[in-house]
Structures are given as C-alpha cells and as structure tokens.
Amino acid sequence: MSHPLASYAAVVRPVVDRLHVGVRHASRPLVRELYAPLGLVPGLEMNLLYAMLDHPVPEAAVAARMVYLPFDPGAEEARGLAVRSGGSWEWTERGRELAVGAEAALAAAADALWSFTPSPALPGLSAVEAALPLVGRLLEAGGASGGPVFAAFTPTWEGPGTSAAGVLVSRLEALRHHRADAHRAAWAAAGLSVDEVVALESGPVWEAVEAETNRLDAPIYEVLDERERLVLLGALGALGDGLRPE
C-alpha cells in the first residue's frame, strides 16, 4: 500500500541530491588543499563527516553507508585518520583535524552558492533561513522511520560558529540518509544483491524498488503540513548548485 506523501518524497529527493552534489563539487579545490600535504585522497571521513564529528559511529552503520563503494576497514585504518574502537568508528586526532577542515570547506562552498538566495514563499527570509528549521524538524521526527545510517547521522554535527548555509549542508546530508536507508531496505526486500541493484536499469523491477523506497521514505515528511512542505521544496529548489547556469 502506498503512502499519501510518497509522491512528495519522490519529488524532493532529486532536489536534495542536486544540492549535495553541487556543494561537494564546489568544495573540491579547498578539500584537495587539505589532503595534499598528507599525500592522501578523500576517504571514509568525507562519507561519515558530520556523523563522526558529533559521535562515534557503529561499524554496522558504516558498512551500510559504504555498501555501494569499495571499502576495506583495515586499509581505512592504515590511513591513520579513523580507527575502530568498541564496535564503532571514531577519528584519530589527525583525522578529526582534517574532518573539521573539510566541514569548513563544505560550509564555505555552501555560503558561496546560497547566501544571497531569497525564499520564494517567505518574503524577507533567505531560502536557507526558510529551509533550515523545516529540515531540523524532519530530522527530529525521522527517528521513528529512519534506518541505521540515518540514526548514525543524527544528531548531526553543527559546529560553533558554522554559518546557516553550513548547518543546512549538515542537515541535508542526514536527510539524504533517511531515503538511502529506505532504498537499501527496498532492494533487500526485493531479493536483490548490491551488484544487482547497482546494475538495475529502468523497468518493472526498478519501478517497484523506487515505489517501495518512496513509501518507506515518506513518513518523515508527515511532521510538516502541506504549506510547509511547499515552502521547503520551493526554498531548496531555489538554491543554486553551481553545476549549470543560474
């Protein structure tokens, strides 16, 4: 049985993903500068950035987060940035220092992309100001329906002095994982392996997995009323991603 907000979940997902990709792309020059002196490229820390800045993350949640990517825990520890302790991953001193720098780079990228974008529905507010409290409410409500990675990303890191745009990046990252957990649950219930779902193309199986993902993702949006959902979609849709002409 479908959920009345499944169509909203389907519409908002690509908007959130677009902003995620845009901020990551815009931050690359600064992030590369951080990693160059270490002779390393970005790894686990960029995929668990906001969660691990706030608290250790259970190994099972890390494995779920990295399920689509090559991930060797031993090789990850050998980089010297993160370690396993008591069943969870946490930063080393050097790893945390790097993660704080990466978070600042992402916040700076978001500031450059979003700071002067007005809210389409709320005159006098920026799009960031309009979206921020609504996404915060979604994260508070999502514990009832989110999976292991969403739980690992909440509460999410919001460092002292971080700009509103930087905080929104952090909150949207957590929100993305409510849907990512739903997607993993949907394809697992369909009896698909990781390799099979990665190779999946449009067709009946793909459509069924997407429909189930939308159904499982939809409950998080129940906390917002209809007007608030429109305000959120409009605010996020107004934000630039730097990937195409504005």
Written description of the protein model:
The protein is mainly α and 246 residues long. 63% of the residues lie in helices and 4% in strands. A 3-stranded antiparallel sheet has the order 1-3-2. A hairpin with a 2-residue loop joins strand 2 and strand 3. The model has no long low-confidence stretch (mean pLDDT 94).
Q: Which spans have pLDDT < 50 for at least 5 consecutive residues?
A: none
Helix content: 55-70%
Largest sheet: 3 strands, antiparallel
Mean pLDDT metric: 94
Number of DSSP helices?
Answer: 12
Radius of gyration: 18 Å
What would the principal axes of the Cα set say about the shape? globular
Strand order in space, largest sheet: 1-3-2
Order of helices and strands: HHHEHHEEHHHHHHH
| Span of the ends, CA to CA | 39 Å
Structural class: mainly alpha
Oligomer: single chain
Please give the number of β-strands.
3
**What proportion strand?**
under 5%
Keywords:
single chain, 246 residues, mainly alpha, 3-stranded antiparallel β-sheet, 3 strands, globular
Produce a short descriptive summary:
With 246 residues, this protein is mostly helical.
Topology of this structure?
Elements (H helix, E strand, L loop, with lengths): L5 H30 L8 H4 L1 H6 L2 E2 H7 L7 H6 L3 E4 L2 E4 L1 H22 L12 H15 L6 H6 L10 H26 L4 H6 L4 H14 L8 H13 L8
Antiparallel strand pairs: 1-3, 2-3
Helix pairs in contact: 1-6, 1-9, 1-11, 1-12, 6-9, 7-9, 7-12, 9-11
